[in-house]
Amino acid sequence: MADDRRAWLALVRMAGLGAGGARRLLEVFGSPDLLLAAGRRAWRAAGCSEALGQQLEQPDWAGVERDLEWLAAGAPAIPRSLVCLGDSAYPALLQSIAVPPLALFAMGDVELLRLPQLAVVGARSASAQGAENAQAFAAELSRRGLTITSGLASGIDAAAHRGALGAGGLTVAVCGNGLDRVYPARNRALAHGIAEKGLLVSEFPVGVPPLPEHFPRRNRIISGLSLGVLVVEAARESGSLITARLAAEQGREVFAIPGSIHNPMARGCHALLREGARLVETVDDILSELAPLLPALAPAAGTKAAAAVEAPPPDPLQARVLEALGHETVALDQLVGRLGVPVAQLGAALVALELDGRVAAGPGDTFTRLQRV
Question: Are strands 80-84 and 103-108 parallel, antiparallel or unpaired?
Fold first, then answer.
């Protein structure tokens, strides 16, 4: 690792500096090593506080050594990299945001940073239909040439990553902690799969935990890397809406999938739609908006992706159950009232539909019909 990388890492580890302050000082001094060598008088002249001057004078070299050790421990199959502001591998879209990260730690193929990306984000406590929508949209969008970017969270994020990987596509996960750990831990296997076939990135160095204040910072990177953001499900107050609003501020397209008025996880999407987000029903609703930026991804002339038509189940009661469920989450007692059949008979039909992937059971004896994208 070259000496300038050590200087970059020293700046990354300065808690009182921040990406915006570091960028301003780099404009004054020209490079990280010249900044660190400038001395207190020059730092004061550049507007640095006494506390920041002390940090610049005594960087966390022990932390830098841990970062260097982590970077050196990468394997050929899953390389580890440090991509600094101004490097050829640093994505131009991300560099154009108001406060780009000073550097990105990466595990996997950093070439993905320069590919066209779409962010797919949403609720951690996603409904079964929401997770299926995220997975299906991510799979088809990745097959159509977009890299799927998300935040490795449970729910919609994880479903989007799995959709891209399952379709043989590419995916980028932006983390809110150092890459020496996986958060949430339940996504450890998924994170390993992303590192093998895609890319994990973070602006946080080794040892930094997933603190709540880190996730808005992570979200600006998710939107900053992407041409647009698709929100699949979100509560009215959620990190996904933060990502969407950051995207709008960054000049990116914002897309939202509408949902049932009875689903609290649809209210955030409906709020975005009222604010001017693009309503999405099929992947072509997204690709048609991005076509001016990416002509190669535009749908073929004169075509429109048609929604797949499901064959009805052969059992008449199962067909009636699907019709009674409609597009809402329905409680078992409501279904009994709508259909007028014994609970045992209805339960058998629901189990068969669940095994067939047409219905998902939820908490409190509720059921949701799974729609195909």
Answer: antiparallel
Residue 91 lies in a domain: no
Look up the domain containing 131 and give its range.
110-297
DSSP state of 112: G
Q: What confidence tens digit (pLDDT) does each residue in 99-152 have?
A: 999 999 999 999 999 999 999 999 999 988 899 999 999 999 999 999 999 999
Amino acid at 266: A
What is the reported pLDDT for 45? Answer: 95
**Cα diameter, the chain:** 84
In a domain, 102, yes or no: no
Please count the CA atoms within 13 angstroms of the CA of 247 that sit on its side-chain side.
30
Distances (CA, A) of 188 to 181, 335, 362: 9, 38, 25
- Please name the residues in contact with 195: beta carbons below 8 A apart, sequence gap of 6 or more: 78, 107, 108
